[in-house]
Amino acid sequence: MSGILYGIGVGPGDGQLLTIRAYRLLTGAKVIAVPVKKYGESSRALNIIRETVDVAGKTIVELEFPMARQKSVLEESHKMAARKISAWLDQGEDVMLITLGDVSVYSTCTYVLDKIRQMGYPIRIIPGIPSFCSGAALAGLSLAEGDEKLAVLSSLGESSEIEKILDDFDNVVLMKAGRQMENIEKILEEKGLLKNATVICNAGMEDMYIGPVDGSREYGYFTTLIVKKGSREL
Amino acid sequence: MSGILYGIGVGPGDGQLLTIRAYRLLTGAKVIAVPVKKYGESSRALNIIRETVDVAGKTIVELEFPMARQKSVLEESHKMAARKISAWLDQGEDVMLITLGDVSVYSTCTYVLDKIRQMGYPIRIIPGIPSFCSGAALAGLSLAEGDEKLAVLSSLGESSEIEKILDDFDNVVLMKAGRQMENIEKILEEKGLLKNATVICNAGMEDMYIGPVDGSREYGYFTTLIVKKGSREL
């Protein structure tokens, strides 16, 4: 009988925000599959679970997901990941594929989970805390209340698109906003929404920044912007 | 010195999806504040934590949040909740206010947290797994990949509004969709999106239903609909 592939969301970067289910599965696991940008590079997801899970003696299988946009490169990396995982499943071992944040929200792992499912193996998904929820918690903001509408975007398309979403939604979360911050700042300024925006940068890390958009800052990969239009009247 | 109010998301209805942080805080707590619809009624949030946290000997403070829409009634319930909590904080006790799912996503507790913060007490927010993430996990769906846009709505306004969002977004989550399912089904049918919709009803409960929209079913309060337009090409 083949093993089961578990897709496990390990949360936003804080070992204490692992769920009890994830903790127990990972503690009991023999094989943990870990996404890396390049073989041999450290994995943030692995570092998160190390805070609470003893990984000594476990087999860590690195899956290389290069930061590429070419379909052929991505396709090849997903195929290779599926091959590595299925080899373990064929031996009857369960594999724990860990991923930052939640599994369903902008995770590369969903491609691999789907591939493995299409190959006929059983999969299970264990949700994790999405980074925008922990960001909102750290910033002390609500993302949606009552009848409010929430939009979540992971990458900014045309400026006109982001303008439209800011017009249509009460609350907007822009993930991975770092590289486009200059453009976002301009749009927010034009709409008079700069005061409604909170940046959450490198949440949980030493150089964490939570505060207003500040054009003089450098914003890295882990930058989330929350724009909250609604003002509450109690 | 006053105590701290912790707003703790306990996840979607599965004690194993509590985070380690929530588990530790609740295990160490003396006072747990629990939202109920009516005094004396059972609290889903409390039942969730009971699965893993021993609450014997702890003080359980019920906060009544009636299912009303009148501003004055809601305002009165938030004031009363703040009064009860601040009485404990004044004695130097920390209070753990538990809430279903995540704290920032459509939680009644945010009103109370804000009120307590305005009164000058310290607050901390501990995020939890939002119900739509666990719903997606149970249904084996991704909510957003790559450049996809995700919209989350907790209540349906005009039909024209939901039509617009279905046009503009790749993936749409409709929470608390139960009462409006007939209208939603009509809209989805007109747009040819019925096949893209998955209902997650009473997730984790005995009468859980995950599957296509089925007009012959009764849908209760804990009904989430995920509409996923994007089809992945690998």
TrEMBL record, chains A, B:
The keyword S-adenosyl-L-methionine applies. One of its GO terms (biological process) is cobalamin biosynthetic process. The keyword Methyltransferase applies. Keywords: Cobalamin biosynthesis, Methyltransferase, S-adenosyl-L-methionine, Transferase. InterPro entries: 4pyrrol_Mease, 4pyrrol_Methylase_sf, 4pyrrole_Mease_sub1, 4pyrrole_Mease_sub2, CobI/CbiL, CobI/CbiL/CobIJ_dom, Uropor_MeTrfase_CS. Pfam families: TP_methylase (PF00590). PANTHER family: COBALT-PRECORRIN-2 C(20)-METHYLTRANSFERASE. NCBIfam families: cobI_cbiL. This is Precorrin-2/cobalt-factor-2 C20-methyltransferase. It comes from Catenibacillus scindens.
